[in-house]
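Changelog excerpt

This revision adds worked examples to the README so contributors can see how folded entries look when concatenated. The first example is reproduced verbatim below.
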Amino acid sequence: MRDTRESRLLLVLLIAIAFALITVDIRGGEESPVDGARRAAATVFGPVENGLATAVDPIGNAIGAVRDSGERHDRLAVLERENAALKQKLGSDDRNRNRARALDKMLKTAGAGQYGIKGAEVIAIGAAQGFSWTVTIDVGSNDGIERDMTVLNGDGLVGRVTTVGPDAATVLLANDPDFTVGTRLEKTDELGFANGQGDRPLRVQMLNGKAKVKAGDRLVTFGSQADKPFVPGVPVGRVTRVDPSGGDLTRTVYVRPYVGFTKLDIVGVVVETPRKDPRDTVLPPKPAGPRPTPTVTVTATPSAPPADGTVPADGTP
């Protein structure tokens, strides 16, 4: 339709008629003159609307599902966060329990040797470019720590203090290649010097080339003059290999240290030396050997022949 004066007048007229019908319909209520026409329109267009509603429902359901999915995702995220927090708490509790056990073990070791110790926590490891095995602990001169004090944990010898600051100190570990400690063999008292070899067993030069030593023998620190840098009796490790003597003046053995140097956490610095050498009392109990299996021997006893001299049917006397 072209936009003419007549078309605009027709449009205005139709709008006026529509408003008039709406007004009449509202005022008439159920007796409205257009009620019949409305019912007829519902009869004609109802099925179409139902069909459209049926066609649109899956889309609406999908939208609702997405909205519900978002809500479920939010709830899932909350639950995941709560679960992660719980796991973290449990992990922290496990770590605290492990540290409590390590501390208890260290205190028992110190008590067995009568060592007065200052507990410390490892807070850093030595720089890799330094090619040395060191750790930093969180106690220093303000805590009574001095250079050349023995450091141990519940397993045995950790190292010695090399540098001291007001609130921290550096410990040279016993597996460092520059580390040397005098050792004493359990029971036989054979002496030697142990040197660190990084992640390999300690190398011990026994002063007696004919010393009787075998795999499984245990060593402790011999101790230093005035107990610095080493107090006596601290467990060092267990012999794993013995080189043939070959008539040399010394004998080389290899010792697996008791301490795990890659997982240090709680350590103790010996600030009070024992009144007497604890000897082998600090060494851990030896593992129990396998129990012998009892052997049962069954001995057959021959039966006496019948009094009448007859022989049984199976031919046995």
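The second example, added in the same revision:
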Amino acid sequence: MQLYGGAGGLRHDRPGAPGQPLGSFGGIGAEHWLGVEPVTGRDLFARVVHGARVSLLIAFAATAIVVVTGTAAGIAAGYFAGRTDAVLSRLMDLTMSFPSLIFMIAMLSVAKDVNRIVLMTAVIGVFGWPGVARVVRGQTLSLKHRAYVDAARVGGAGPWRILTRDILPGVSGPVIAYTTLLIPGMISTEAALSYLGVGVRPPTPSWGQMIAESVAFYETDPMYFVIPSVFLFLAVLAFTLLGDALRDILDPRGGRT
């Protein structure tokens, strides 16, 4: 089945739609399961798969930074209290009140000669940890006066042993549930930054970047817009539902009633 026509294998005979793929639904067929991109003729399935790798890599890496930093800060603030709690709590408030999206756009716009994936991961991770830290701090405050923690303290256990052996296992359930709820937000943030043109740059594919490129063709080739949008929606929905389920299992008191 012929999917392209004209110069470069793309159709130019339709007024107002230069480079539109031949065939219905953007050239979807046996050779190209999701069709092809207008003008370039690149296989859309391959672009979606590679875009998923980039989006999920950034989302998982940024989430790891957020969870590790937030858990460490929350446990330290809740257990040591006093001045440590005051300093870390003010740092949490400052970070959460900072216009993070504007800073991300500005930073990614001026930093041109760096690895975009590494920079996006770092920038997104820097602004995400206070939410985890507050959850962990609250859990730590309720755990540090439990009988088994007092027994460990009386038995001569040091702060490091108490934090790693007694406090950390007690906060792991809510942290795991919160982590799965963070991932869809990270995916959306990466897609939004790439859509705005300050995220991943061509030729590296990204779902947000593909959606931005498809805006010019949504009237003549709507499938080019629909396909990456649907995959982005399904990914966010899947992790959101997973997060809700894990939260109800691991943290029943914080679940929905």
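Reviewer comment on example two: Residues 44-80 form the longest helix (37 residues). The chain is about 65% helix and 0% strand.
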